[in-house]
Amino acid sequence: MTQRHGRALNPRPSAADAPANWKLGKAQQLAAAGRRWNSHRRFATVAFPVDWATVDGPMRFDPTSSGTPVSAHRLGPALSRQPVLSAKGEMVKLNDKIALVTGASRGIGRATAVALAAAGADVAFTFRSHADEAEAVADEIRALGRRALAISGDVADEQEVDAAVAETVGQLGRLDIAVSNAAAADRGLFHELDMDLFRRTIDVTMYGAVHLLRAATRQLLAQGGGGSIVVISSPHARLAIPRSMPYNMAKAAVDQMARTAAIELAEHRIRVNIVHPGWIDTPGERKFASEEAIQQAGAKLPWGRLGRSEEIARGVVFLCDPASDYISGSTLEIDGAITLPWWANRGSAVPE
Questions:
Q1: What amino acid positions are annotated as catalytic residues?
Q2: What is the pLDDT of residue 265?
Q3: Residue 127 in contact with residue 103, Cβ under 8 Å?
């Protein structure tokens, strides 16, 4: 693996001076101050209201204006830069934590890397392809005032993952958080699917997670002081989705891996948790279906749409929060109710 980035730029945005008691509707409102990297390549400080009660609703308020309603999909990327609340209603703080995220040039990995930076962490991340997009992720992290380290490599290769952890520690000083996100998938009937593709799905999705878990754990144990590991898994771990056998198998294994690690590492105060995203609107979905087909299918889901990567990232930040100290061995489902019985029978909870 080779280093692509690793320098720190401007200081983090401050939440001071945010307007208090800014009301937008039915729930208690919080005010937060953010900084937005604008097209002129300089910081512009803006104050924006955050309606946490309706964060997933169809309408949001544009943080760059004075309360102009905009559609949710336009604000998707901005969600990862908004503050995340702890269970006590406080903003999550990962100040000076060092995080490593695998597979972060696009989709959930990208959103997670940016969200961790927005919460105060310096972030290293791996990517295997889409180098230009990886460069953009690093720029976005730096724009938040955090250090970024982009590392090219393949998580299916144990030595490369070991090298990524070592490089993270060497360049950023230590490791506090590891997020296993990288995955691969090819679909087809199991008896027809090419075995090279079958094995590749297992190698990246299952063994990639194993490699990061082992390497990160060794580093955290050597440092002492605990840490947080989050594994991005899937409802495929327990649902037999047709034409997805290798992915189903890999995710089921990953879940059991994470739970086993959680109990083995509890005495060392290393927390291991799982996130189950539902059907998320990522570039990878376009590998299997057209844009039209994806949007039509999304409209039939219980929540009426696909999830956003930034919504998954906010869950990861919550799990990594030191205030979530008693959460380990847990599975956080962020799926818009897709795994509930409603979906099983395509029914409706709305009275006739």
A1: 234, 247, 251
A2: 98
A3: yes
